[in-house]
Amino acid sequence: MSVPTPRIPSTAGEGPMSYAIFQLARAHRARAAAMLREMDLHPGQELLLMQLLDRDGQTQSELLESVGLDHSTVSKSLRRMQDAGLLVREPAEYDRRVMVVHLTDKGRAMREPLAAMWRALEETSARDLSAQQVESFVRIAYSIADAINSRAVASGESE
User: Is there a smaller number of Cβ atoms within 10 Å at the N or the C end of the chain?
Assistant: First the structure.
């Protein structure tokens, strides 16, 4: 079965790789969002959970830095997650203005469902690829991300 070739807008023809990345990111994000909805999570919340599962008790600032999202998005996500009983935020003992985030038992119980979700998403994404192609893709994707990020840093742009 052949895969239909998408119609690329003529202007995007000036950057076919960039347009392909855009289409890939959009499709991947949509599939991940659907899987997260089944877990009663919003996109981005899984990233915060995974960071906390690796190291519980991080400050909101540490979480901001580790997930690369903006302050308002992280703050809103943490509030929703607290309302859902996944975590608690408490002032730090050393500075009451700093909020420390801790997982609840319900939050810690998300480890395996999240791992299963990522496995399923990986299987779907790599279904038609060989192990070597997957390895190559991962290496190339990080190389592209590094190139974009180093350009943004060099020119003083924010991400």
Answer: N
Alpha helices in 2-156 (DSSP H): 16-38, 45-54, 60-67, 71-83, 105-108, 111-125, 131-155
114 Cβ contact partners less than 8 Å away, ≥ 6 residues apart: 39, 46, 49, 50, 53
Tell how far CA 107 is from the center of its chain.
17
pLDDT tens column, 31-70: 999 999 999 999 999 999 999 999 999 999 999 999 988 8
Would you say how long the chain is, in residues? Answer: 159
Compute the C-alpha angle 15/19/23, nearest 5°: 170
> Which candidate, 27, 101, 30, places its Cα nearest to that of 64?
101
pLDDT tens string 84-129: 999 999 998 888 889 999 999 999 999 999 999 999 999 999 999 9
Rounded CA separation 108/147 (Å):
35
Residue 40 to residue 36: CA distance in whole angstroms: 6
The b/e string for 107-119 (b: 16+ C-beta within 10 A; e otherwise) is: beebeeebeebee
CB atoms within 10 A of CB 103: 20
